[in-house]
Structures are given as C-alpha cells and as structure tokens.
Amino acid sequence: MMSATTVFGLCAAAAVGLGLYGLIADPQPLRKILAFNLLGSGVFLFFGVVARRGAAAGFGGDPVPQALVITGIVVAFSATALAVALLLRLFEATGSATLHATQTGAGTDPTEP
Amino acid sequence: MSFALDILTITAVSAGAFFFLAGTVGLLRFPDALTRLHALTKADNLGLGLVVLGLLPQAGSLRGGLKLICVWLLVLLAGATVSQLIARAALASTASGQRGNPL
Amino acid sequence: MTIAAALEIALAVLVLGMAAWTIAARETFAAVVGFVAYGLLLALVWVRLEAVDVALTEAAIGGLSGILLVGAAARLRTSGTPAVAESPDGMLRVAAAVLAAIVAAALAAGVLALPDPAPTLAPAVAANIAATGLGNPVTGVLMAFRAMDTLLEKVVLLLALVGVWSLAPDRVWGGRPGPRHQADPLGVLAFLARLLPPVGIVVGIYIFWVGADHPGGAFQGGTILAAMWLLVMTAGLTDAPPVRLRWLRLVLIAGPAVFLVVGLAGLWLGDGFLSYPIAYAKPLIVTIEVAMTLTIAVTLGLLLAGAPERSA
C-alpha cells in the first residue's frame, strides 16, 4: 500500500505546505524566496509522482510530465535570479532589505544612480 | 566469484558508511570550524573512496569503473579546495577577533 | 516492508526534515545551506522516481541556486537585524499555519485519490519517438513533441536576464555585472579554476551530446558550462563582460533565434510551425540543441553574475 509514489506524493504535499507557511509567515524577503522555491519543488515532486505512475510502453515513467518539470525547474531558477537581483537592488538603494517602506526613513530615492 | 565480489561490495560500502557517520558525528561534536573541517574531509574522502571501491565490482564495464574513480577524484579536488578556503576564512575571522561569525 | 520501501521512507523523512529546517532556521545563512542540501536530497528522490533527466537538472540547477542564494545571504547579512524586529504577530502565524495545513491536506488527499490505472502518454511517445531519431524519450518530448514549450522557456530565460540588467543604476548602464573578484593567483581557488574547467567543459559537452539517447540534454550540459564560467570569474582569472557587447547579445539570442528559424522553416518544408521534416529531424534537433546549450550557458552565467555594477 505504501508504494514509492504514495510516500513521495505525501512528501510533496508536505513540502508545498511548508513552503506556503514560510512564504506568508517570514518577513525577510530572502526567506520568502527560499520558501517560494520550496513550494515550487513540492509541486514538481507532485508532477514526478504522476509521471512515475504513468510508467508504460517500456519506459520507467511518463516522459511528458518529466519534460514539463525540467522546463519548470529552469524557469523557477530564472525567476529566483530576478527576485534576488531585485532584492539586492532594494538593499543597495535603501540600505535595508525589508518590504515595509516606513522602516528606512531618510528619504532615499530608489531611482537615483 | 561473484559471491566474493558481492561480499567485497557489502564490506567496503559499509566501511565507507561508517566513515561518513564518523565524519557527521565529528561535525556535530567538535568545538570550532577547523576541527570540524578536519573531521569532515578525512571522513568524507576516505568514506567516499571506500564506497567507490565497493561499487567497482558492480560497475559492469571498465568504462563504468573509470567513471566512478573520476567521480571520487573530482570530489577529492573540490572538497580539498573548499575546505582550504573555509579554513582560511575561519582563521582570518578568528584572528581579527570577530565574534559570532556564521562558521 | 521491503528494503527499498524503508529506504524511500527514510529519504522522504530526511527531505522533509531539511525542508522544515529551511523554514525554521533562525539565521538566513543556515537556512540557505539547508535549502542547498534539500535540493541535493531531492535529486536522489528523482532517481527513485525513475526520472534521471530531472535528477540531473535538479542537481545542476540546485547547485546554481545555491551559489545565488549564498551570495545574496552574505551580502544581506548586515540587514538581518531590522527585519527580524518586524516578525509577524501570532495571529498571522496561526492563520498561515492553518492555511498551509489545509492546502497540504488537500494535496495529500489528491495523492491518495489518484486514478488507478493511471492515465499516461507513454504509449503515444513510444509510438512516435522513432520518427525523431532520438533514443531518450524526455529529449524527444522536449525537442519535438513539446518543442513550443522549450522555445517559450528560452524566451523566458532571456526576459529574466533583461529584467536583471534593467536594474542597473543609470551611471553603470551596460557595464560589467558584479564586483571584480580578486583571488590570490597562486592560491587554491585559482588552482581549482585552472584545473577544473577543462574537465568540466568536457563533461558538460558530453552530457549535452549523450542526451539524445541516454539521460542528459542541453539544459544539464549548459548548466555545467555556466558553472565552469562562473568558477573562472569568481577566481578572478577573467572578468565579467560588459553587458552591452554586441557579440554577447548575439550569443544570447542565438538559441531562441535558431529555434525560431527552424520552426518557421517547418511551415514551408513540413506540416506546420515547429514540425521537422522526417528525413532531417535528428540533424535539425541537434543543431537547435547546440545553439541552445551555448545560449543557456551564457544566460545562466549572466543571471548569476547579476545586475551591472561597474562601468566597463
């Protein structure tokens, strides 16, 4: 009953839950980015479980969800890179990496060079 | 003959796993960065070497065995370099009297 | 319970433990290290799910993400204190936990309710893979059956890079990304950066080439090439190129451009956009993959280098 796919499927569900909690509850933007990646990897794991269950015609798994996951991993990485670049620019421009505008005070203008 | 090779695999991989365990215990129990690095690199290089040695009879072809040895050599190279860099950073930060560095 | 099942349960518990550590760790640096370890363990999970191509991609891109996040955590280390002071109150945490638990429970119920026998496209792929001349079904899906997705993904990578470049301050617009790295030219890092890239380039090209018939492919190979370039830049042996260079931009659009040209040629020579004429399917796919690997390597390397910070 506890086959590989069930175990990893439940693992995927737990990873999505943990990622969602971290995304909402942690105030630091970098931790939110980490939690978002965790959420994404849980979803990809879910795809992987579906792919494994579709093993047929001599393949170990259904190749279509696997290809979708490969695409998804690369796209998620590029989104993370953009998010980190935004965060570093925010830190450079305002001196602190927080999403609350009132924390920084001293009229910093993010568009100044 | 293949039974003897299987015994070799089991003993070598178990010995390698023991070294990994020893390295992890050292990582958790040693007091500072330099001693932890010592535990990690000694254990992981020897541990991975024993695991690779144990997997060589199962590799199936000469090319597969050479690939396994390449994996071990590359991990040795990366591990040695990274532990040197971490050790220098840890030494520099304790020399400058930093407290609470993340290492 | 078989040994394999016990191994899988142990692996799943480890993976969840690392995920929980990533969320719960106090220091951001520790959380990032935990996340990198989580990614590597996840690669093992992918191997257990018989998805070796995905395991290779997860290990390679997980490593790159690790570099990105560790670098960001190091630069942001001084900003940790004011952000912690604004920890959300208990009610928000409880509400977030309840929501997360509901979503996880719904997904778990979905996992347990998956249809049996499972619907699958594997027979359709097996029936049509011979026409593409490829032996690896995942590469066949990526490059032939779902080629549109791959083309759009290349464009998304480029858009992300344009987004990162647009964050440059006005005075360094089009300049060199990242700080100038200086390492002792006789030191250990420079030694590694001289010794490893030849090996890494061979491994990267091999993984891309062998992806036609065995697990591998353009993404995995391109990621390894990008990692070698980043190693050489980090050791200070070469500097990041200024982003306004024409040859750099030509290399970046080479991948999607070749893909698009072949796709449009399919309108004349084949049955429609992105259909390959049967006789030339494999050579066309390999040509697209060569351009893609080069573009992916340069794009990922530049995404990691970040926004321009120095004028050229």
In short:
The complex is a heterotrimer of chains A (113), B (103) and C (312). Chain A is mainly alpha-helical and 113 residues long. In chain A, 70% of the residues lie in helices and 0% in strands.
Helix and strand topology:
The complex is a heterotrimer of chains A (113), B (103) and C (312).
Chain A lengths: L3 H22 L3 H25 L9 H32 L19
Helix pairs in contact in A: 1-2, 2-3
Chain B lengths: L1 H28 L3 H23 L6 H34 L8
Chain C lengths: L2 H22 L3 H21 L3 H24 L4 H5 L5 H23 L9 H11 L4 H9 L1 H19 L10 E2 L10 H23 L7 H17 L11 H24 L11 H25 L2 E3 L2
Report on the structure:
The complex is a heterotrimer of chains A (113), B (103) and C (312). Chain A has 113 residues and is an all-alpha fold. Chain A is built from 3 helices and no strands. In chain A, helix 1 (4-25) packs antiparallel against helix 2 (29-53) and helix 2 runs antiparallel to helix 3. Chain A starts with a helix and ends in a 19-residue tail after the last helix. Chain B is mainly alpha-helical. Chain B has helices at 2-29, 33-55, 62-95. By secondary structure, chain C is mostly helical. Helix content of chain C is 71%, strand content 2%. Chain C has 12 helices and 2 strands; from the N terminus they run H-H-H-H-H-H-H-H-E-H-H-H-H-E. At the A-C interface, helix 1, helix 2 and helix 3 of A face helix 1, helix 2, helix 3, helix 4 and helix 5 of C.
Number of domains of chain B: 1
Oligomer: heterotrimer
Count the beta strands of chain C: 2
The portion of residues forming beta strands of chain B comes to: under 5%
- Which ranges of chain C are low-confidence, i.e. pLDDT below 50, for 5 or more consecutive residues? none
Largest interface: A-C, 84 and 100 residues
Task: Briefly note the structural class of the backbone of chain C.
Answer: mainly alpha
Tell me the number of strands of chain B. Answer: 0
| Main sheet attributes: strand count, strand direction, barrel closure of chain C | 2 strands, antiparallel
- Fraction of residues in helix of chain C: over 70%
- Cα-atom radius of gyration of chain C: 22 Å
Counting structural domains of chain C, the number is 3
End-to-end Cα distance of chain C: 63 Å
**Structural class by helix and strand composition of chain B:** mainly alpha
Helix proportion of chain B: over 70%
